[in-house]
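Subject: for your reference before the review

Hello V.,

The reviewers asked for a structural picture of the protein, and I figured it would be easier to keep everything in one thread rather than splitting it across files. Below is the amino acid sequence we used in the manuscript, unchanged from the supplementary table.
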Amino acid sequence: MRQLGRLNPRHLLAAGYGPRRTEWGPRTIHTRQLFGCSSLPVLGGHRPAVKSWSLHHLRFKSKTKAPSHTAQEEKDEVEDKNDPEDSDYEDVDPNLPKDYKDMEKYVPSFRYDVVLKAGLDLARNKIDDAFYRNKLRLNGQKLIKKSKTVKVGDTLDLVMSENNETNTIILMRVILRRVLGESNDGDKYKVSIRRWKGLELAKDEAFKP
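And here is what came back from the structure prediction:
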């Protein structure tokens, strides 16, 4: 009892002696309104700590949609079609017959005789025989060397027959349109070829000096 007498009323109230008293201040009432508490007892003038929420704890979901992968692919395809470097060789005389055939072949080199053999599906000895009989033409001119290297857009002709009365010729023609790439082993080139097997033209149109 002697020790209890040394305690002031505030200490007795905090220890549980005597009636409890609720202190209502402006901040207490504001906290009660925020959290919906019926009562917030405050003992000894100590106010309860109010938990604050940081904006870092809040996660907002964006309503903006990222562009779909399909739409990007369609855009790339349109750009590829508009790229003149990727387009096929189409510099062909519109007056020529349309009975040609487009094909893809593998060739080990771009020699004239190699490309012509692949385009016409002829044996090597027939190509050699036509060369020695002066029946091969490159871009309308007589072929001097059958090992000559050809490039995209070149016209390779093998003359089949000539008609002096009508001044026309019948020939087989190959045009190297495009180089598509290399084979998996890297030993051959994949090329796009356009072929005519029975093209009749005037001599002045087919032959060039």
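For the response letter, the relevant points are probably these. The helical segments are 2-5, 9-15, 26-35, 69-81, 112-120, 124-132, 203-206. The beta strands are 101-107, 136-138, 141-142, 155-163, 168-182, 189-202.

Happy to draft the paragraph if you're swamped.

O.
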